[in-house]
């Protein structure tokens, strides 16, 4: 039992809802806001490939809809449709999305296939980044 079990469980449940008929790569993400609430999302692809959305974007939309504006931590899980989970680091665009609401200190939790959790900060993943305070 770890303090992250609930967050990873929410990300796993979201991943099961992924709509990924083109890549067949299913991703789930779950955000914990500073009040402890969890907001989850999955990737949603589209026949017009570039407009598909990432799991992190879905989780962020759910967070904003719920009235929160800060990410304390986020867990991301992913893997091929009929395969085992693999380490699934956020894409570059999603790193920037997390930056918008998580600042430099947001914790990003990833999971190795053997279950080992790797925790990085947003600053680890997107160093020397541009953010809201620049505008
Ligand atoms: N994907 C995510 O949902 N999050 C990421 O950070 C990496 C990629 C999705 C997008 C696409 O539906 C599939 O994974 C394959 O790229």
Write a structural description:
The chain has 135 residues and is α+β, with helices and mostly antiparallel strands. It has one domain (3-130): Cytidine Deaminase, domain 2 (3-Layer(aba) Sandwich). The chain is 27% helix and 23% strand. The chain is built from four helices and five strands; from the N terminus they run αββαβαββα. The longest helix is centred in the N-terminal third of the chain and has 11 residues, at 5-15. The protein is globular. It starts with a helix and ends in a 10-residue tail after the last helix. The model has no long low-confidence stretch (mean pLDDT 97). The structure holds tetrahydrodeoxyuridine. The site of tetrahydrodeoxyuridine has 13 residues, from strand 1 and helix 2.
List the helices and strands and how they pair.
Elements: H1 5-15, E1 25-32, E2 38-42, H2 55-65, E3 73-80, H3 92-102, E4 107-111, E5 117-121, H4 122-125
Parallel strand pairs: 3-4
Antiparallel strand pairs: 1-2, 1-3, 4-5
This protein binds tetrahydrodeoxyuridine (THU).
Residues 20, 23, 25, 27, 43, 45, 52, 54-56, 90-91, 94 line the site of tetrahydrodeoxyuridine (THU).
